[in-house]
Amino acid sequence: MTISRFCRLGVVSTVLVSSCFMTVPVFSLPVPSAATAESLAEYVGQYRSEAEPDVVSAVNVDNGKLTVEGERSPRLELKAVGKDEFQVTDSQTRLSFLRGADGKIASLKIGAGIGRQGERTLERFSDVAVRLNHFREYTRTEAMIPMRDGVKLHAVILQPTNAKAGEPLPFLMERTPYGVDGGSSRSFNTSKPELAASGYILVEEDVRGRYGSGGQFVMNRPIIPHTTKNDVDETTDTRDTIDWLLKNVPNNNGRVGVLGVSYPGFLAMMAGIDPHPAVKAVSPQAPMTDVWLGDDFFHYGAFRETYGFDYVQQLEGQKTDQRVDGKEDTYDFFLRNVNFAGAAQAAKMTDLPTAKAFVAHPEYNKFWQDMAVQRHLTKVEVPTLEVGGWWDQEDLWGTQAEYATLKPHDTKGEVFLVLGPWNHGGWSGSTRHLGVVDFGAPTGDQYRKTIEAPFFEKYLKDKSGFELKDTASFRTGVNQWKRYEAWPPKVGFAQAKLYLQSNGGLSMTAPAGEGKVSYVADPMNPIPYRARPIQATYGTGSKWRQWLVEDQRFVSSRKDLANFTTPVLDHDVTVTGDVMADLFASTTGSDADWVVKLIDVYPEDAPAPMAGYQLMIADEIFRGRYRKSFERPEAITPDKIEEYKWSLHGADHTFLKGHRIMVEVQSSWFPLYDRNPQTFVPNIMTAPADAYKAQTVSIFGSAKYPSHLEFEITGAKD
User: Fold this and answer.
1) First vs last C-alpha separation in the chain
2) What average pLDDT does the segment 416-441 reach?
């Protein structure tokens, strides 16, 4: 939900990640006085790892000193500490140059501290000196900016130190609950290198009640009518901030762009609703949009228990950004505490506002509806660039929902969508990987250089170069960027249905006759959503950020779920657009959860580590009590066959020849989602222990009840 959050992922694959603003230092060490430029020249060249060949470190000699730098790493000096051994000044980081059989430098090892933790090897692939670093120096100031109700918000302002005299620059603003104290010239250059090099006046601001700002923090503060000066929300705070900036920061050109990822993405969209006239472009990236329907806290009524539990403590338990951590497997913790109310009591968090809301408002009532951003997107007021990732573990829904809501009002062609092979905020990095999946190119770099930077250049500086007409989508499987005139694409695809067969097969041909697949779902033995042990969301060693690309073989052999699989494909099949699940199912209980996963099964002879890999492409959960209304839950009639239809969200993926397509259906995804007791109770948040009962679940694949997935497809055959 935050820049500071995903920077802790180490998504910037450079030599070293050293701060929560993804500061990646470039190494340069002062050398002994006896060293000469000639003696140091043998180290000069370009180095990269086999895993990340696009991330290059360049070693040079500058004024008799050895330096190392990267495109996203500052130029630092190195000091010699032994033969072929160097150390980063004022750092524990050590660099060892290794020689080949011919005696020449062949590679570079980098590690930090005793034992050289995190040591990695970079191979030398060129002895040619290059300059990769183009950092622009910025001057930092701070301000307390007054709002209309007298509250003051803390902001960090970065202005180019070497701006041309009289050169007015636009503002680039990011508002956040995650703290801006670390904002600096280096953090701007490493986290947003293309924008920093171009030159903007960067403004980073703490929202109300967080870090250095006054006032009270309210989670996803709803938009309210503005009838008095004390009627404030994020739209008014944005406008008041911009008013102050225009008047008090010199050499601005009167234009403002706003961007942010996750919670800051929500705040970026707030800047585009009833905007200040100076706002000329916004980019909500993985924005929190509707936290009940499909973002952070609920997905179609199913409560995201571990996430809500951890995140509410992080945001409301203190004014700063302390992560929840612990040594216990969260699977055991939440199973032992029965329900969310029990877990909250154990953690002594029952007085936190949003924890109270979870218990008091489990259904989609006015409390959650008032927070929903899409309800306010009734017109396009500023050019908008929506950005999201196919494997976003936090806010996949918001990007696609905001685009779908805004696009019908887009009369000027100013609403754009980018969907790529990323997890939450992954487009900020330079890696070509997500987990073990290799996409063949640094897709984040490609997006920032060809779309994000030109977008802001166009609308804030009147420069050419932004050529996106509507949607840019990275098609996985074949690993290619595609451009579409609309999303979902309307040309070149045909609607198709993939039917779940009672024999465990999948086919484009509708089933005939009768048939079903059944399993017993036991809430006392729920299916884990990722391999155990399951750490706290942002806890030490947590694999949260990559769980959506985890190999599903760790659960696919369980007996309490159903698998449906095609034969080995004899041709490529491309699925593009929204994937809909349409299940005909029954349960012996009076409530149930339905989880559907669309999976690409790799052949057993695929190159390691992908041999036999089961990669989720689209997936989502639906809570059965909301099949008729999200506002009014209703018990399921035991053994009654009912239809459950919901979106698994967008995909753009080619199932390659030789692969198989799998659909997996299960009834728990624990503890990310709380357990459904499978006995209808008024409030699952407080469900008693004796309500949790094993039930038999049946998925029908028959002529009368044809369970299936719907999507747009190319390469369809029976």
Assistant:
1) 42
2) 97
Instruction: Read off the DSSP letter of residue 179.
Output: -
Residues 6+ apart with CB under 8 A from 629: none
Closest CA to 712 of 509, 573, 583: 573
Residue 619 CA to residue 665 CA, distance in Å, equals 10
Mean pLDDT of the chain: 93
Q: Give me the residue label for tokens 């897709």.
A: 443
Count of CA atoms in the C-beta half-sphere (13 A) of 205: 30
Residue 39 φ then ψ, to 5°: -70, -30
pLDDT exceeds cutoff 60 at 124: yes
Q: Does 715 score more than 90 pLDDT?
A: no
Residues 6+ apart with CB under 8 A from 510: 497, 499, 703, 706, 708
Query: Beta strand 93-99 with 105-112: parallel, antiparallel or unpaired?
Result: antiparallel
**Sequential DSSP letters for 270-308:** HHTSS--TTEEEEEEES----TTTTSTTEETTEEBHHHH
Which residue in 668, 674, 591, 622 sits closest to 339, CA to CA?
A: 674
Query: What integer pLDDT is reported at residue 92 of this predicted model?
Result: 84
Strands 138-146 and 279-285, how do they pair?
A: unpaired
Q: Per-residue b/e over 28-48, b at no fewer than 16 CB within 10 Å?
A: bbbbeeebeeeebeebbbbbb
Show Cβ contacts of residue 228 under 8 Å, excluding neighbours closer than 6 positions.
Answer: none
Query: Roughly what angle, to the nearest 10 degrees, separates helices 234-248 and 263-271?
Result: 70
- Residue ranges and CATH numbers for the domains of the chain are 3-126 (2.40.128.50), 138-290+373-484 (3.40.50.1820), 298-371 (1.10.3020.10), 494-714 (2.60.120.260)
Count of beta carbons in the 10 Å neighbourhood of residue 273 = 19
pLDDT reading at 18 higher than 70 = no
For 359-368, what is each residue's pLDDT tens digit? Answer: 999 999 999 9
Closest residue by Cα to residue 2 from 418, 420, 648, 11? 11
- For residues 241 and 155, the answer to whether their CB atoms sit within 8 Å is yes
* Alpha-carbon gap, residue 402 to 288, rounded angstroms: 10
List, as one string, the DSSP characters of 247-266.
HHSSSEEEEEEEEEESHHHH
Compute the chain's Rg from CA coordinates. Answer: 27
CA distances from 192 to 141, 185, 226, 431, 592 (A): 19, 11, 35, 15, 45
Percent helix, percent strand, percent coil in the chain, to nearest 5: 20, 30, 45
Contact predicate 565/601, CB 8 Å:
yes
- Secondary structure letter of residue 322 according to DSSP: P
pLDDT bin (cut points 50, 70, 90) of residue 35 is: low
What is the CA angle 564-568-572, rounded to 5? Answer: 105
Q: How far is CA 393 from the centre of its chain?
A: 6
Model confidence at 114, in pLDDT bands (50, 70, 90)? low
Asked whether the beta carbons of 674 and 687 are under 8 A apart, the reply is: no
Dist. CA 655–CA 553, nearest whole Å: 18
**Hey, how many other C-beta atoms are within 10 angstroms of the C-beta on 190?**
29
Helix (H, G, I), strand (E, B) or coil at 268: helix
Residues 6+ apart with CB under 8 A from 353: 218, 219, 316
Cα separation, 361 vs 357, in Å, equals 5
Residue 524, token pair as written in the block: 């006392």
- Would you say 171 and 245 are in contact if contact means Cβ atoms under 8 Å apart? yes
Q: How many residues does the chain have?
A: 718
pLDDT of the residue at 575 = 97
Percentage of the chain exceeding pLDDT 70? 93
Closest-CA residue to 506 (of 575, 576, 437, 592): 575
pLDDT at residue 426 in the model: 98
